[in-house]
Amino acid sequence: MQAYFKIKFNSVKFYLEISSLGCILVVVLQVYITINYRRKLMASTKDKYLQVRVESRNQRMQYAGLIPGREEIAIDYTPPLGDDSGATSLELLLLSLGSCVCSTLGVLLRSEGWVIEEISCGLTGTRRQEHPTGFESIALELDLVAAELDAEAVAKAIALAGGGICPVWAMLKDSVAIKLDYSIKIV
Asked: DSSP 3-state assignment of 153?
C-alpha cells in the first residue's frame, strides 16, 4: 500500500510517498514533533515575565541593577547629580539594543547556515535637546567576521530584525530613528 503525505516542518513543506510501514513512522514523527513543539512553547512562557530590581546605593544617584543569579550592575548619573561611577540608564538602553541586534542577527544568519566568527556593534545615540532628553536617533555600526558571508543574506537578516524579530528594536522603532550600517570582514 502506498500513501502520500504532506508534512510541514519549520515552515517547509515536504511531500512524501511512503509504504504502510513508513506511514507508522510518519505518525510517530508527527507526534514527536508536536510534543516537542508544545514543550518548547510551554518553556517559553516561563520567560514571559522578566524580573529585575533597582536599589539605591547612596544618597545621590547611584543604583545597583539586580538580576536574579547575575552580578550586580552599577548604574549612576553624570556629575553634578551623580558620581559617574556606573553606566547611565541611556547607556544601558544602547547596550540592550546592541546586544539584542547582535543576538538576533547571529541567530538568523546561523539558522541559514552561515558560520559567523564574530559579531560586534558600536552604537551612538543622539539625544533630544528638550525634555525628555531621550534619544531622537540611534546609529548602529555592525561588524561581522566570517570565512564566507553573503551581503544579501545580511541585508535580509537586518530587515527581519528591524521588522519586529528583535524585541528591543521593535519597542524603540516608533519613537527613535534607528539607522544600521554594517561591514563584513572575510577571514
From this structure: helix
Residues 86 and 101: beta-carbon distance below 8 Å:
no
Angle at 53 between CA 165 and CA 139, to 5 degrees: 40
Instruction: Give, for 30, the enclosing helix (H) or strand (E).
Output: helix 20-46
Residue 2: φ, ψ to 5°: -110, 145
Distance, CA of 142 to CA of 162 (rounded, Å) = 14
Stated pTM of the model: 0.74
Cell of 177: 530613528
| 120 confidence band (pLDDT: 50, 70, 90) | very high
- C-alpha pair distances (Å), 166 with each of 79, 96, 104, 107: 33, 11, 6, 11
Instruction: Say if CB 178 and CB 172 are below 8 A apart.
Output: yes
Evaluate whether 128 touches 137 at the Cβ level (below 8 Å).
no
